[in-house]
Amino acid sequence: MNSSKRQTYLRLLLSYLILIIMAVICIYPLLWVIGASFSPGDGIFSTSLVPKHATLAHYRWLFFNPNSQYPTWYWNTLKIALINAFVSVIITTGTAYVFSRYRFFGRKYGLVLFLTLQMFPSMMTMVAIYLLLNWIGLLDTHLGLLIFYAGTQIPFNTWLVKGYFDTIPYSLDEAARIDGAGHVTIFWKVIMPLAKPILAVMFLFNFMTPMTDFLLPQIILTSPDNQTLAVGLFSFINKDVGKQYTLFAAGSVLIAVPITVIFLSLQRYFISGLTAGANKG
Amino acid sequence: MLSALSMGLRQMYNRQWVKGGLLLGLQIAYIVVFYPFFNIGLWGIATLGTIPQVDNSLDLMAEGIISILLILFGLGCYGFNIRDAYKVGKLRERGVKPPGVMQTFRHVTDQGFPYLVIGPAMILLVFVVLFPILFMIVLAFTNYDLYHQPPAKLVDYVGLDNFVHLFQLSFWKTSFFSGLCWTVVWTLVSTTVQVILGLFLAVILNQKKLKFKKFFRTILILPWAVPSFVSIIVFSGLFDNNFGTVNLFLQGIGLGALPWMTDPFWAKIAILLIQFWLGFPFSMALYTGVLQAISADLYEAAEVDGATIWQKFRHITLPMALYATAPLLIVQYVGNFNNFNVIYLFNKGLPAIPGQTAGGTDILISWVYKLTFETSKYNYAAAISVIIGLIVTVLAVLQFRGTRSFKEEGMIR
């Protein structure tokens, strides 16, 4: 008995050791950005975790220097993210509702198609996307980017929301139908009030995608005035000489902190959405 | 019979005058409006234009694809029409009066409601997903590159040449095969390690007697929560050859500095390490959920039988966890197969390798990016994308098998 107790004790000790090492590895790079954002100078050699001469100069530069495009990027990103969140919620809610409640010809094919498309990242067709947007004159416009965001989110989010709708008892619909409610009334008056939580989650997902995406805006938005944060911040260090790590760090902290907080509060919905899409046919 | 001739005629024969008239009108309008477009579109996609500077091959290609999609859509409606006429005909034979206009209208708004709602989403999907895929496939069989830029020059079909070059022409062959090999190694190693690490940490965190669970879970999930473009760029700073923390640390403990940025081998190691960091929290969160769903009775029963910790893990935890997540595993493999961000943002797929168009750490997808936006070799980029698409399709089919086998298993939920 004594030896097994000691074994448990040892195991716990080892567990704590592993967890502490992993925690340090996880958090060090993040602390480094924060430290770098307050470090004086430009380059990577002048950064430190706890800068001796901490300065707010980089933050000030980002917002007040006339050469800084940071406020423009931030505004572009917020605008695209908000519009995308609204449009996506509207399109996807209806689609998910229909797939959850109606049995119609082509329903099963549609669901299988969505499950497949969910695996095809839009970047795979980047050659075509670039040429096509050029063809219809939407290259370097926010509209062009939004069309692709709103379109490519449909498969995943339809599965996510459909899974939630499936859990709302069908008897509610039937009761309303007996009372004479039509399709639209049932949707608005019965389903929507109950589905608010999942709609909020979907809204936030679609808000965060444009905030953090790099490749699509990099392809579609070519002029600096139209760029989003991810692309703009990358331009700070995408140079052969004079990489501005500290500016990049300051700019990143201002975007990463809100995103991280939102994400931490949403992460369990993300997991449940993924497992719903994967497990239920 | 009549319905096969033209839409609407059979409906008129069935004495559904208004409906028949509407359908006939729609069909005539469809033909009148689109005929010139189809004409030029189909001719365009077949020839890609004949006169340089007058015919723009890319426009013709896009118009051709749209024509084909519209024709398919028209044929679909046509099929529906025949089915409808057949049904009504059957009704009439049985002496039932065919439904009138108002009845049909109500029927359409009622039964057609699902189609009405998903219509916009479907159209959007066709435009942003299906259309680009078709366009890319056509492109893969042409010679569209820097030297064949419309409208100055024409683009021509070259059959399977691009694919043949990738597999046989020595210049392309070395780039393609070394890129493919690294992509496969990258996908397998990065995904497998991040999953195992995630499962391992989830199991550790699931121990009953462990304290501060919530604290550790929050810290360990941070790499997933922070926007990846930020953390990857941060890592490219930390792995800097001269001033990066990693090398300073290695020198500090008496080991020499390593050429993380300039040597292909060490660059690959660095990228793998970064991906482990980025990827494990997802698996950890996923398995934490799965582990909590496993009933405690199973473990108690095993303890009564005197099972060791390893036996409990091997025979209870592992099978349950894998059953619950097999389809997601494949999604993760596909995700890393196309993980453009980590490769490109770390050091743009560099270092360059002499005699190759792909850099030392380029996976196929980042190579496609370079071919498209740096060297304008659209044809090869499209051909490689098609190959990537085929691989993803195979994996998607595997995923379905997994999903379906689940439903029949019914083990978890």
From TrEMBL, chain A:
Q: How does it sit in the membrane?
A: Multi-pass membrane protein
Where in the cell? Cell membrane
Q: Which GO terms describe its molecular function?
A: ABC-type maltose transporter activity
Q: Which Pfam families match?
A: BPD_transp_1 (PF00528)
Can you supply a Gene Ontology BP term from the record?
Answer: maltodextrin transmembrane transport
Q: Where are the transmembrane segments?
A: 12-34, 80-99, 111-133, 145-165, 186-208, 245-266
Which protein is depicted? Sugar ABC transporter permease
User: Does the record bear ATP-binding in its keywords?
Assistant: no
Against PROSITE patterns, the record matches this protein to: ABC_TM1
Q: Output the Gene3D superfamilies linked to this UniProt entry.
A: MetI-like
Instruction: Describe the location of the ABC transmembrane type-1 domain by residue ranges.
Output: 74-266
**Which keywords belong to this entry?**
Cell membrane, Membrane, Sugar transport, Transmembrane, Transmembrane helix, Transport
Q: Which organism is it from?
A: Thermoactinomyces daqus
GO cellular component terms, A-Z = plasma membrane
Is Membrane included in the keywords of this UniProt record? yes
| Homology family | Belongs to the binding-protein-dependent transport system permease family.
Q: What is its main location?
A: membrane
